[in-house]
Amino acid sequence: MNIASGWKKPTAGIALLAAAALTASCSSGNAATGNAGASKATTSATPQAPTITISPAEGSAKVSPDKKIVITASGGTLDEITVQAGTSDDEITGTYNADKTRWVSKGTLKPSTGYTVSAKSGVTTATSAFTTIKPERELQVADVTPNAKGETLGVGAPIIVTFNQPVTQKAAIERALSVKAEKPVKGAWRWINDTVVIYRTATYWPAHQKVTFTADIEGVKAGKGTYGVKDYTANLKIGAKVISKVDTKKHMMYVYKDGKRVQTMRISAGMATTREYTTTSGVHLTMERGNPVRMISPGRKKGDPGYYDVMINHAVRISNSGEYVHAKDNVWAQGVRNVSHGCVNARPDQARWFYSTMQRGDVVDITGTDRELEWNNGWGFWQMPFSQWKKGSAL
Known about the structure:
Layout: H1 12-26, E1 51-55, E2 70-74, E3 80-85, E4 94-96, E5 102-105, E6 114-121, E7 124-131, E8 137-139, E9 141-145, E10 159-163, H2 170-175, E11 177-181, E12 187-191, E13 196-201, E14 209-215, E15 221-223, E16 226-228, E17 232-238, E18 242-247, E19 252-257, E20 260-268, E21 282-285, E22 288-290, E23 293-296, E24 309-312, E25 315-317, E26 324-327, E27 344-346, H3 348-357, E28 363-367, H4 386-389
Parallel strand pairs: 8-16, 18-28, 26-27
Antiparallel strand pairs: 1-2, 2-5, 3-6, 4-5, 6-7, 9-10, 10-13, 11-14, 12-13, 14-17, 15-16, 18-19, 19-20, 20-27, 21-28, 22-25, 23-24, 25-26
């Protein structure tokens, strides 16, 4: 029985009796099993509104672009979040934890940019405006080779990326680089120096496909005071599988396209009287072409023995040590003797055909000499085993 129920104006006697009963109950040795008729006092409080915390806090300046935006809610869940960069329409995305009380941004922030953050939890809203740091040095992709407009590449082609600033935090930048192919094949990056990194596949690219290179470097720290300021994308096209095999002992060159022989050429290679005049053996790649190309004997001046200064037609470069596949009218030697200064020369009409059909990155595999092509001589990257190549990665 609730002694207070239904009583508005109790008489004095009854009120005193009730007071006595309550006093007896409260003084019992076991409060949990005391007078069953005792009442329990109850109160009702207004629920507190959720609180929201945003980091970086309002007014923060010189925020590092690799810092994450973190929003937390106490006493409620996060209902709405908006993060806007400067005056652009780009919004930063992020992920929630399981109970939606915490949100963390994805990726990096843009350098030299003001950000506005707003969040809502129940009836509570919060905002924060902050600015990211201006880099001392701005990192960008200066060049990707080979990547001429409309160019089709050979199956041996590397992806050579050159930056405009030295990169000391190479692992961070390398993580921001990606290569996606329609016909995927294993590959790895190798840093040549602080500004150049090269991607090479473990085996030749599968022919006839598209490859996309992406550098998501905006906001990535590349070194002290150095941050990426602009992303970069290159769409590459891999063409037919063109493999040329040169046998300097038999003085022959065979060209295969997608597995089918399409050209047989009598050639003359380096005379091999000196190392300089010896054609290098190994896997070469076609690098560039010119018609004509001026060729001058290295390390000699006019009047010296062996000096030459000539213009050569339909020349395709295959190394940095002066080797080309080019036209030459000494057909008497082609297929018979090696008489060149190190280049592979062929009949003018066939050299013109090779010049016209080559793709940068086509394979020219030369055998028969005792001078090996160095892996860093031109695009001789296939001379290095892939197991060794990938050790040049920063990851």
